[in-house]
């Protein structure tokens, strides 16, 4: 079958001789992929900053598809069902799944206790092949996969597997109270959704900071928020203080993670030398821009290695930090309603549709922000 | 550079009229304020490692297990088992805790070595890696032709200059 194949940093290709996935566990299903995305967090793998990303891996944690085979104990979904598959692999039985922390399942990743199991996201996230392929093995098929409602556009459905729930959870973890000023660092797909969802929690003001004007223009229109390009500000932290009565924002959201630009030291240590879990510039700005007693919500992906985080300021300012991978399954029922009622229109953020065969171009496009790229969707020939 | 931002131009307008934003405040929950104590748990976690585990996936490949776990998880990925020199380094890394540099730095090294193993693997199977295609430069050609052509010309010039320099040196 056709699948993406990682060959090293900045090098991927589509190979036609990749082996078909097999049922390896009675709760597995095999899904024929209909749509899959390249995610901003795939770029961390693509750029080689996530340890234990092995050559030959298939990436892709955002996908929808049709079930073509099920293991012997799968009951809730059947062959022929069209499903959206949450990016986290979760058993539904462990201590964490029972608390609806599906992103933190303890029965999906032998290699790590910190990270859960994620499709196509290195061996640090379980060593699973991902959805940038014609077919993919989906473990715990009775837990994650959710049947796509008849009325739903497949383009909306694929964004519900990660982008929308992650943005939504970023806003939710911010504990936004009515009238709060929310600053979102990063205008990628997750930042765009976080800004949009902040209003649903009653934000009074939503500000987005990024370095690309085209992304800022997009999020301003899509999420009706204020936008600022940090390359035009002398110091984004000072700017946010000034624009929030000198106190700081109530809630800051880091929707960037380890690829942040804007700080030489962080870039050198985090992105070039790989001595930090990525560059922590966005997190620095979030911690330093939030008001005392405020909340910093982190959904940006960082590698497992320690990072230079201004922890002294966290203590001195009494900041609450909340962070997690989104527990997609927990949010899906509500988000499906929001899509149905037209409150969130996910597919508007799709900027490119690319055949799976051209996956290398897709990654290059996403990585270098060519052609005003926001969100590319890959379509397998068998879709 | 001086910051000419004028605070007066950026009044912090709170409240305001948000009815034009579809769905404003529909998920508002005053109780969702993590700066105040709150707990909404099932207390499952205090019972420890006692849940009814899913059936164990047969372990018929080499799986590296975190030393912080008692066992291999009920399911796991089987994408690329450790092999070669990079595999040996990965095995070494997994002797250390997830909180140790001994765990992560060797993995970073193994990833780099693995890239070269990938080259050898490709060549041994008779495919010579097409770096131009794998780096997705076709997209550069399509969307950024001008800068791409410039970069290529520059690279070609530098390479040619380098070769001439080397030839001249070896003649001497
Ligand atoms: Zn993603
Ligand atoms: Zn679980």
From TrEMBL, chain A:
<dbReference type="InterPro" id="IPR002328">
    <property type="entry name" value="ADH_Zn_CS"/>
</dbReference>
<keyword id="KW-0862">Zinc</keyword>
<feature type="domain" description="Alcohol dehydrogenase-like N-terminal">
    <location>
        <begin position="26"/>
        <end position="144"/>
    </location>
</feature>
<feature type="domain" description="Alcohol dehydrogenase-like C-terminal">
    <location>
        <begin position="189"/>
        <end position="262"/>
    </location>
</feature>
<dbReference type="GO" id="GO:0016491">
    <property type="term" value="F:oxidoreductase activity"/>
</dbReference>
<dbReference type="Pfam" id="PF00107">
    <property type="entry name" value="ADH_zinc_N"/>
</dbReference>
<comment type="similarity">
    <text>Belongs to the zinc-containing alcohol dehydrogenase family.</text>
</comment>
<dbReference type="InterPro" id="IPR013149">
    <property type="entry name" value="ADH-like_C"/>
</dbReference>
<keyword id="KW-0560">Oxidoreductase</keyword>
<dbReference type="InterPro" id="IPR036291">
    <property type="entry name" value="NAD(P)-bd_dom_sf"/>
</dbReference>
<dbReference type="InterPro" id="IPR013154">
    <property type="entry name" value="ADH-like_N"/>
</dbReference>
<dbReference type="InterPro" id="IPR011032">
    <property type="entry name" value="GroES-like_sf"/>
</dbReference>
<protein>
    <submittedName>
        <fullName>Glutathione-dependent formaldehyde dehydrogenase</fullName>
    </submittedName>
</protein>
<keyword id="KW-0479">Metal-binding</keyword>
<dbReference type="GO" id="GO:0008270">
    <property type="term" value="F:zinc ion binding"/>
</dbReference>
<dbReference type="Pfam" id="PF08240">
    <property type="entry name" value="ADH_N"/>
</dbReference>
Automatic annotation (TrEMBL), chain B:
<keyword id="KW-0472">Membrane</keyword>
<feature type="transmembrane region" description="Helical">
    <location>
        <begin position="148"/>
        <end position="167"/>
    </location>
</feature>
<keyword id="KW-1133">Transmembrane helix</keyword>
<feature type="region of interest" description="Disordered">
    <location>
        <begin position="1"/>
        <end position="40"/>
    </location>
</feature>
<protein>
    <submittedName>
        <fullName>Uncharacterized protein</fullName>
    </submittedName>
</protein>
<keyword id="KW-0812">Transmembrane</keyword>
<feature type="compositionally biased region" description="Basic and acidic residues">
    <location>
        <begin position="11"/>
        <end position="32"/>
    </location>
</feature>
């Amino acid at each position: 079958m056709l699948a993406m194949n990682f060959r090293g940093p900045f090098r991927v290709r589509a190979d036609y001789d990749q082996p078909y996935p097999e049922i390896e566990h009675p709760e597995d299903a095999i899904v024929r992929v209909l749509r899959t995305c390249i995610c901003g967090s795939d770029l961390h793998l693509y750029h080689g900053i996530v340890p234990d990303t092995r050559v030959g891996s298939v990436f892709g944690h955002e996908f929808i598809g049709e079930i073509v085979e099920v293991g012997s104990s799968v009951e809730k979904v059947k062959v022929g069902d069209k499903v959206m598959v949450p990016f986290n692999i979760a058993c539904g039985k462990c201590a964490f799944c029972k608390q609806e922390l599906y992103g933190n399942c303890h029965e999906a990743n032998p290699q790590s206790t910190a990270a859960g199991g994620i499709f196509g996201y290195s061996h640090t996230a379980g060593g699973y092949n991902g959805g940038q392929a014609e077919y993919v093995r989906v473990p715990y098929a009775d837990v994650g996969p959710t049947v796509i409602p008849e009325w739903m556009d497949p383009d909306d459905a694929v964004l519900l597997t990660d982008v929308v729930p992650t943005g939504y959870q970023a806003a939710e973890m911010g504990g936004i109270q009515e009238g709060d000023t929310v600053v979102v660092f990063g205008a990628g797909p997750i930042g765009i959704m976080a800004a949009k969802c902040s209003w649903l929690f009653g934000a009074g003001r939503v500000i987005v900071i990024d370095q690309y004007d085209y992304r800022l223009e997009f999020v301003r229109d899509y999420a009706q928020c204020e936008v600022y390009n940090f390359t035009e500000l002398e110091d984004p932290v000072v700017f946010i203080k000034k624009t929030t009565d000198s106190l700081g924002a109530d809630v800051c959201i880091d929707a960037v993670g380890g690829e942040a630009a804007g700080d030489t030291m962080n870039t050198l240590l985090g992105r070039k030398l790989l001595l930090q879990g990525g560059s922590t510039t966005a997190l620095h700005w979030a911690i330093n821009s939030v008001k005392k007693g405020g909340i910093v919500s982190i959904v940006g992906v960082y590698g497992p290695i320690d990072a230079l985080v201004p922890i002294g300021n966290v203590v001195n300012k009494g900041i609450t930090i909340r962070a997690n991978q989104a527990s997609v399954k927990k949010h899906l029922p509500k988000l499906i309603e929001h899509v149905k009622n037209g409150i969130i229109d996910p597919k508007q953020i799709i900027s490119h549709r690319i055949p799976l065969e051209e996956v290398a171009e897709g990654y290059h496009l996403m990585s270098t922000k060519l052609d005003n790229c926001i969100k590319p969707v890959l379509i397998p020939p068998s879709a | 550079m001086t910051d000419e931002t004028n605070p007066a131009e950026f009044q912090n307008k709170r409240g305001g009229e948000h009815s034009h934003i579809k769905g404003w405040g529909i998920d508002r929950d005053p109780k969702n304020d993590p700066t105040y104590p709150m707990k909404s748990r099932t207390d499952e976690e205090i019972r420890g490692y006692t849940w009814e585990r899913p059936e164990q996936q047969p372990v018929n490949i080499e799986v590296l297990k975190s030393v912080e776990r008692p066992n291999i998880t009920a399911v796991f990925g089987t994408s690329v088992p450790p092999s070669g020199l990079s595999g040996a380094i990965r095995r070494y890394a997994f002797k250390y805790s997830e909180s140790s540099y001994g765990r992560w730095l060797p993995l970073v090294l193994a990833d780099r070595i693995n890239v070269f193993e990938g080259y050898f693997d490709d060549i041994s199977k008779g495919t010579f890696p097409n770096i131009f295609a794998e780096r997705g430069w076709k997209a550069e050609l399509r969307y950024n032709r001008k800068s791409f052509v410039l970069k290529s010309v520059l690279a070609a010039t530098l390479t040619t200059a380098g070769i001439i320099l080397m030839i001249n040196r070896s003649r001497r």
